[in-house]
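Researcher: Good morning. I'm working through a list of sequences from a screen, and I'd like to move beyond sequence-only analysis. For each chain I'm collecting a predicted structure so we can compare shapes side by side. This is the next one on the list. No need for commentary yet; just the structure.
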Amino acid sequence: MKNVYSATGLILLAILFLALTILGGAALRGMRVDLTEQGLYTLSSGTKNILEDLEEPVTLEFYFSEDASADLPMVRNFARRVQELLDEMAEQADGELRVRRIDPEPFSEAEDQAASYGLEAVPVGSGGDSLYLGIVGTNMIDGLEVLPFLSPAREQFLEYELARMVYLLSRPDKPRAALLSGIDMDGGMDMQTGQQREPWAIHEQINEMFEVESVTAEDEALPDDLDVLVLVHPQDLNDALLADIERFLAGGGRLLAFVDPYAESAVPANPNDPMAAMNMDRGSDLAPLFEAWGVEFTGDRFVADAGLALQVNTAQSQRPVRHVGILGVTADNMSSDDVITGELDAVNLASAGRLDLAEDSPLTLQTLMHSSEQAGMLDVERLQFLSDPSELIDQMGATGERYTLAARLEGDVPRAFAGEGGDSSEQQAASGNTSPYALNAIVVADVDMLADRYWVSRQRFFNTTMLEPFADNGDFVINAIDNLIGNADLISVRSRATSNRPFTLVESLRREAEQNLRATEQRLEAELAETEQRLTELQQARGDTDLDILTEEQEAEIDRFMEQRVEIRRQLRQVRRELDEDIEALGTRIKMINIALMPALVTLFALAMAWRRRNLRRARQERRGKAA
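Model: Good morning. Structure tokens for this chain:
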């Protein structure tokens, strides 16, 4: 009878467990705990603000092929993640965001509709089935935004792409931006093929986010009703246009300017002409305005930084070398207090200049990006015929000073063009146009950071080009424009989209070892030059005509050099070996922490709890014994 009761109890417990599991699943549906460091599975405050500010309904249709993905568990898991995020966004929008899930089965009207929207059909399996995994967004006024294919490899960008789609659909009128570029950001014409090159990725993003009006250096006035002005590599601007730019800023307009002492991305009119590339002016400046504002910009020198130098490959070297003119600015060298850079991880620059304020400048300068303390200034002429970037390390002298590479400028500034362009001096004076005005501008001392090769790679996926950022250059630019026009909602979403986690300690070890390596190489070159000079002197001292016959002194000198060369090569190998050992030791320590530390902590916690329970049990037994 006791066994029967025991079996019955186990069955009842099993039934109770299943019932509680089902009830708990229904009651706690949609409830999750996000334990990731960056809260990757929790809606950001920017996304919540965008959803809460929706005034008219927005519809997102999620096209996903159920049958075609039956044998693709990773794709199905990602689709479930997309659906969960959409549901969470719809709940946050309080009815203003409508989410529909559509299965575009083969030869159905849904499939025809997906194709008409431009969604990508990915062939899967051997049966010729097509997989759809895209989103179509619409609003009440025929607005349309399409994500042709959601790649599982870009899951970290998912929230930003959805928030951006909702944001664009919620704004019938995009902010108006004027873009003046002295460089072919729109791709330009390839003179060799006669075809149009692809526009820069940042040019495409600016055009997607804003209503862009193009301005050229020959124009004499800006378009009307602008929200922000973007200047990229401004060269030879006429006074009338500069005066109109000043009028725009004096009227409350905002400015984002990219100037450069040496724009390596600039292309001459005829790329096949070596003299054109050699003689072209690669520098840009806003000298008349900067002078009036009290802004100092190094137009003929660039910042060389051994602490932030990135590795590059050269034909002259078999291994990558550090280029002190190409900088990887990390979060430690960006302002954590400014919304533009606060959440960025890395921005890559090339031959950037230095920004500073004159002593009598009325402006306040808030640094957004700066160099490390291992930086110095070099003339841009050093870059023109540079074949080996490692030579720059020997030429630069670190000053211990941090140079400003990008800054926010604010304050009341005097006019540089009072009396020019449109109104006479008397008219401007009568209307008060000669008085100082409040400037709100962001200036970056580099143009190359906008070029694709410094921050993004393009991947072709069927008929769609997918961008894979490896740095936050694009986020910096869009953040800056959004901030200048007063929109901060997308910034927090965009900034956390890329979770680049560089191994900073490993990079530090590499830089230290490379500096030791460079010092050893320099010593080898110096001893080689000294030995060759000594051999030349010995030959001249002999005065013999037969130079193929060496004296004992020359042979001893050569033998000594050979021994030195073998010893120095051994030292070079030892430096490389120590570098590898340091990195391997670091990796071993990290593995030990990940593999052993957490189980050890759990075990110690369990032992402590068991010890505590035992002590409590013993104390209760003692109290009972005393009571008895």
